[in-house]
Amino acid sequence: MADWGYGQFCPVAMASEVLGTRWTILVVRELLCGSHRFNDLRRGLPHISPALLSKRLRELEALGVVRRQADPDTGTPLYELTEAGEELRPVIMSMGSWGQRWLESQLSMKNLDPSLLMWDMRRNLNPTPLPRDRVTIQFLYHDVTRGQAKWWLVVNNTSEQGPIDLCKKDPGHDVDLYVVCDLRSMTAIWMGLMSVQEAIDTGKLKLTGDRKLKASMQTWLGLSAFAAETKRVSA
């Protein structure tokens, strides 16, 4: 896969040659998180170029880690992990757990990205405690550029197309809950470094709207899969 190599027969070295190229592990991470369409993969990897993403997918397909097939409805490519790819799940999760425990949070908090944060919250959100009717939640970040400041999560537990939509443009629904916060604080909440109540108590988070939605935000908000990991280094 790579143009370089370690020149060792050790399985660790050979696996590193496959997974060590730039973006490859993150492409696998996105597939493990449930992204199967090219555009969805790009939403989870906003800084990768389309050409490089296509290249990495082809390489992983050639190695038998990824399988490509056509969507029966649209004919567009769908990507999924093979058995070999699925076996990387504990590897990727262990890497994430290690990073959450042993790397200082300042390192990750330097890389704030509202689009990636909202995409992660959208796919991890728990719709179960929300009402069966449609719920619209607007996020307003007061410290980012205008085009990245407003986001809407529309949750419809009765929808057959999927219960959660993420919108950058006003979907035209009445808003049930307004969430006003700075991007750094919301990222800290998502990463498990701060609770919703702590953010409210310190004035970093303001909730306006439905009382039940406000009270249950910590329950329905989609957190990082590693949010429960305990830090082993100073924050």
UniProtKB/TrEMBL annotation:
Domain HTH hxlR-type: start-end pairs: 10-107
Instruction: Show the coiled coil region(s).
Output: none
> What is a single Pfam family found in this protein's UniProt entry?
HxlR
UniProt xrefs under PROSITE patterns: HTH_HXLR (PS51118)
Record keywords, A-Z: DNA-binding, Transcription, Transcription regulation
User: Which SUPFAM superfamilies would you find in this protein's record?
Assistant: SCP-like (SSF55718), Winged helix' DNA-binding domain (SSF46785)
Cross-referenced PANTHER family:
TRANSCRIPTIONAL REGULATOR, MARR FAMILY, TRANSCRIPTIONAL REGULATORY PROTEIN
Its recorded name reads Winged helix-turn-helix transcriptional regulator
Per the UniProt entry, what species is this protein from, by scientific name? Litchfieldella rifensis
